[in-house]
Amino acid sequence: MLLRLVALIAASAILLGLASTIAASIDEPPEASVTAVQIDYDVATEGLPTLSADAPQNPEELAALSGLELLEALARTDVVTLQRFAATYSGEIVDELASPPPADGVVAWWSQLEEQQRDTLVGSLPRLVGNLEGVPYAARDVANRAYLRQAIETATSEAERGDGGRTAHTAAETQLAMLREIEAALGGPGAIPARSLIAVDDSWPGKAVVALGDLDTADYVSYLVPGMFFTVQGQIVDWTEIALDIHRDELALLHSEVAGLTYESSVATVAWMGYETPNLFTVGMLDQAREGSERLEETVAGLRSARAADPPHVSLIAHSYGSTAASLALARGALEIDAIAIVGSPGVGVQRAADFGMDRGSVFVAEASWDPVVDTAFHGADPGSAEFGAVIMGVAGGIDDVVGDTLGAVTGHLGYFEHGSESMRNFALIGLGRGDLVTGSSGRHLMAVGR
Q: Are residues 260 and 394 in the same domain?
């Protein structure tokens, strides 16, 4: 942008000089006048930077593009046009995010940008940059936090203004409450571990993805995928706290010699609310599971592309209807993960664990007593059946005879995420690639085999 500004200033000075030349030569023959002007122009502009000839000149040109072609054009566009595009064509940005360019293409595009171009794009188009899979997570966090602040300011103004009657006022207040929950999930300044806003969508009922730890460098990454009735306004804070509990358990295990893991390793856990979960009226259908499977595919593909040079161990902890969504992506071979924990599932989209195409012993299932959802096979095969062939996780509780912790039993549909439960310890082991230490239905003590 600095070079462009220099070019524009130089061009303005040149034009002023040319105007004087033209005025002074008005009595000269036409041919001599034109020749003098051309010589003066050529001498004055020699060696000066020029604006790209193919740079978009207005937002309308940008709005006509999509995919990587749009991204390439954005990188060549001046900041004023970018800001006008963001203000005028927000719908086009939403459409672009609904069908985003492939993550590996985004990685290649971002890597060839100069630092100033990246900063300009983050500042001008935070909603787009923050939600593009393939952009480094640190940059996405900066962009998404900026967009969240903008959205909160807008919703606050609309709620205070009260235009449009009671219905509009209520809608604005509801929108603001949802956004405030996302803000709360990020924790305060200096929160440990550091939290990042990896994705955000303020369109009601909202979507949000909060990471604990550094996704750009973590050796182990675990995604928590929610099921029915989970909403951003209602549960994003709780879902992030559950991710925090697993994160802490993983760190404790990393520091344990028994687990056979290195102290230097790092972890990231992700509270993933990247799709709209079903409610009482839609839970019997698979529409939202299909949407969730596509969003999960994009999320993991983004991580794999961004971390191609140093791939982490990736696991999913998929609860309830979220396990159905994850199974659809796995069934079509679209989800490159190392392990999955399926808990409280109403059914999955394959008949056997082997149909997921994953390594043997990398599919885990937990079914708690008094969980009304398990064994229903409402949305496909029952992953807890012997025929399915998954590793059965213990949830009955017991004593960790290495550390001496008492691990709680799991009951009901939401009990899998109780702090200090056997299932939570097992989630941590799965996330660290130590599924061989997961306690099974036989009730053997945790990590006893790791001695």
A: yes
- Let me know whether 125 and 29 are in one domain: no
pTM recorded for the entire structure: 0.85
Measured CA to CA, the distance from residue 297 to residue 147 in angstroms comes to 24
pLDDT digits (tens, 9 = 90+) for 136-175: 999 999 999 999 999 999 999 988 886 777 888 889 999 9
Intra-chain end-to-end CA distance of the chain, in Å: 61
Locate 173 and state its tokens.
Answer: 């207040």
Same-domain check for residues 87 and 211 = no
d(CA 31, CA 335) in angstroms, rounded, equals 70
How many domains is the chain built from? 3
Whether pLDDT at 197 is above 50: yes
Q: Hey, what are 317's tokens?
A: 């902890």
Together in a domain, 381 and 265: yes
pLDDT tens digit sequence for 34-90: 455 444 434 443 443 334 556 777 899 999 999 999 999 999 999 999 999 999 999
Domain that holds residue 31: 2-42
Cβ atoms of residues 216 and 194 within 8 Å: no
Cβ(344)–Cβ(370) below 8 Å: no
Structural domain ending residue among the three candidates 100, 118, 135: 135
Residues 121 and 246 in one domain: no
